[in-house]
Amino acid sequence: MTAVATRPRLGFLGVGWIGRNRLEAIQASGVADVAAVADPAVDGAAASLDELLEQKLDGVVIATPSALHAEQAIAALEGGLAVFCQKPLALDAASAQRVVDAAAAADRLLAVDFCYRFTEAARTVKALVDAGELGDVYAVDLVFHNAYGPDKPWTGDPTLSGGGCVIDLGIHVVDLALWTLRFPGVRGVTGVLHGEPLEDYAAAQLDLEGGAIRLACSWRLHAGRDCVFEASFYGTRGGASIRNVAGSFYDFGAERYDGTQTRRMVNPPDEWGGRAAVDWARRLGAGERFDPAARENVRVHEVLDRVYGRTQ
Q: CA 247 from chain center: how many Å?
């Protein structure tokens, strides 16, 4: 395959709400060309990944049902394409490892749409932690409640979704916490799931080297608002929190805590929704190949597997 052009040619596999949003964000950024779309529900579009692989593309954005992600990503990587995939990358850690191994073997850029990393609030809090301004962070509280839950038929089938609110919502805040803390070792994980066949509420604790993370997430919780989102970090010298504003799914702020004092650091608005996709496309255009940070996805899935009781 020839070197990637300054403006890489991208294909989009699945253009439902999220896929379309990422497509529009990349188009608006001007960092890449949208060369092909595959979605059987869209008139005039290609119907499959195989048809995309016949195009002269540099990368593909995958936004299909969760159970398809791993095999589609592997096929694209083995076909010489870089991959940007919606979360989850796979339904379990073993499958996620296979995707990362395929990316390493093909030397292709692989990224997952952990979009909350790209909010201004999250970037601000991570900068505090990286600079040591909170001291040693020993406690993290994570909350993600969605008053509605998913609305696609396949999300109710565990063989297609991989699980309920943990793999749908919890994965975002677990990634956000581990990323902020530079992926510390996780010594133990305990979890409690409520609901059958898929959990609609979950609570978990991650015991770290030097601290702990507490997680609560749910679908359809009576919380008096559309969404409750929190990632709070408490250290020996201070605390900081990322929170949604007024129950919004899209507006986030960041606060700094010193004793009983609170200082607001970030307020909305913040157009963050497509930043992860644009960042991947920009890096692809710059000629970046396999990034070892892709292995972080396996670390996140290992935690989720332990919450689900799949591994110890």
A: 20
Q: Confirm whether 201 is domain-assigned.
A: yes
Instruction: Give the strands of the sheet with 186-194, arranged side by side.
Output: 186-194, 201-208, 211-219, 137-146, 227-235, 239-244, 252-258, 261-266
Q: What is the CATH number of the domain that holds 60?
A: 3.40.50.720
How high is the mean pLDDT in each 10-residue block of the chain (312 residues)? 70 95 97 94 82 94 96 98 98 98 98 98 98 98 96 90 97 98 97 95 96 98 97 98 98 98 98 97 97 98 97 73
DSSP states of 103-152 as a string?
A: HHHHT--EEE--GGGGSHHHHHHHHHHHTTTT-SEEEEEEEEEESS---S
Q: Which CATH number belongs to the domain containing residue 266 in this structure?
A: 3.30.360.10
